[in-house]
Amino acid sequence: MGGVRVLAVPFVVPGPSGVAVRDRLKHLTPEDERVLRAVGEYQGVLASRDLKVRCAQGLEHGADTWAARKRELTKVSSSRIAGAITKATHDQWALARRGQAAHIRSLETGIRTLRHRLSLPIGAKGTKSAVGGYRSKEEWFRKSRRLKVLEARHAAVVKDWRAGRVRVVRGGKRLLNTRHHLAEAGLTEQQWRGRWEAERWFLAADGESGKRFGNETIRVTPDGRVSIKLPAPLAHLANTSHGRYTLTGTVAFAHRGVQWADRIETNRAVAYRIHLDTVRGRWYLTASWQRPLVQTVPWETARAGGVIGVDTNADHFAAYRLDTHGNPVGEPHRFTYDLSGTTHHRDAQIRHALTRLLHWAKQTGVAGIGIEDLDFSTEKTREKHGRRKRFRQLISGIPTGKLKARLVSMAAEQGLAIIAVDPAYTSMWGGQHWQKPLTTPRRKMSRHDAAGIAIGRRALGHPIRRRTAPPPHDRRDRVRHRTAQAAPGAREREGTRPPATDHAPGDVPPNGTRKRQPSAPKTVRDAPRTHQWTQHPLMHTGQERFLHG
């Protein structure tokens, strides 16, 4: 098996660490919306200023600078609002920092690929593991110029990385660029401006255990009444005591409502966020809290009752159930989805497909689901698949990160464990060893269905192939066993076999060391020639008695 890389060991994916539920704020009055807009706009300005200061500090950030920023914000708001803004600023800066590191890795991959292809002769053919040279001198020249461009970009980004300088846009870079393409987006300038301002508002508050209902800034009572602690400059808008404003509308969390109620009744921390959906013109309240750390299910327990192997594709999940021995059970299942259209449509399609997959897994009674640990970060570069635009769009369109996060969180609610396996060679080996044997006139096996079996067997700890290749010399097991299921200590084909216990004589030595003896002859023709026949003197035939009588 030369050239096959070392496979990673399967592992059980840890469960989610947090929970978030959302409900609509209904029956709000115009005064309620005016107050929400005023608070969101005021605190959004504070968040923008704090982010600007944090980005200017770069790598010089520390506990002292954090405390100084929080003190400045407390003067114009409150201590809890200042804490929520500074925490959101740190999260946004850290996210930009991780994105910058990913961009550097992408540039390094492209530069490495370009240098390799430019070093090859023109027209050199590639292999499965490495790309070949360019087809013409013109393409070689254009790619050599692109190499210089990428090297310049890489040097600039690395310089920013070392200086701790990041690029952050409150409201989103995509929405900012939409301002220059309003006709293509189907928006007017006023519509875009309203969406831009709403995205830059800040209406969020972190929870605090021990405080009333788990949050002092945005408080939600068990009956769904929502009240907001107003900043000091907006205290004149309060309609209740202590500078608070109580909204007319109420909330009722249909999903996880019991868990939310248990937390606020015991004054445990719950974080809230209020935002406006400008497309629908609706206000929403999102509640989130941390889940207690739960011990991950051991791998042996997750595979005890068999698993379901799932192959992720661009338009469907190919799933197959396997028992504990790695044998396919039943028929293949496909859960389709459509990743075209808007972001909300794609997200809904993935949730619907995962819901059907998890419901089927619960019906079968398995305890784990095997899935590939996919990561296309090294395969998306245009330098490796420059002409294969459709293939690049295919792997870029599969939301692997969002899919894994949703699957883990949804499976945890169903009591199912997710086993991540190495994705290497699953489609190739699955199609080679399982597609043809399982194809019948009534069952049409695809390569994706066979890959699901390969993933499930790898999650169970079994090899993908059903049987090993025949012995290369003769029919003896001189090299290895024919079946992959044979244990290392099992007897080979030409080995001695112990006798059957119900037919063996009592004096047969143990451990099968009895030597086979020739059986007694049953006819005269079978008797040896050295045997002398003798007749007993008392035995006479009738003719002999007549002669003697």
Mean residue pLDDT: 82
Uncertain segments: 500-504, 521-549
How big is the Rg? 37 Å
Basic shape? globular
Describe the oligomeric state of these chains in a short phrase. Answer: single chain
Content of β-strand: 5-15%
Instruction: Work out the number of β strands.
Output: 13
- Sheet of most strands: 6 strands, mixed
The portion of residues assigned to helices is 40-55%
The number of helical elements comes to 15
Strand order across the largest sheet:
1-13-12-9-10-11
Distance between the termini: 92 Å
- Give the H and E element order: EEHHHHHHHEEEEHEEHEEEHEHHEHHH
* Class per helix and strand makeup: alpha+beta
What does this structure look like?
There is one protein chain. With 549 residues, the chain is an alpha+beta fold. It contains 15 helices and 13 strands. The protein has helices spanning 30-57, 63-76, 79-119, 137-163, 173-178, 182-185, 189-200, 257-265, 299-302, 343-364, 389-397, 400-413, 426-435, 447-460, 542-548; strands at residues 11-12, 18-25, 204-205, 218-220, 225-229, 244-250, 271-277, 282-290, 307-312, 316-322, 328-336, 368-372, 417-421. Helix 1 packs across helix 3 (79-119), helix 10 crosses helix 12 (400-413) and helix 13 packs across helix 14. The longest helix is centred in the N-terminal third of the chain and has 41 residues, at 79-119. It is globular and about 75 Å long.
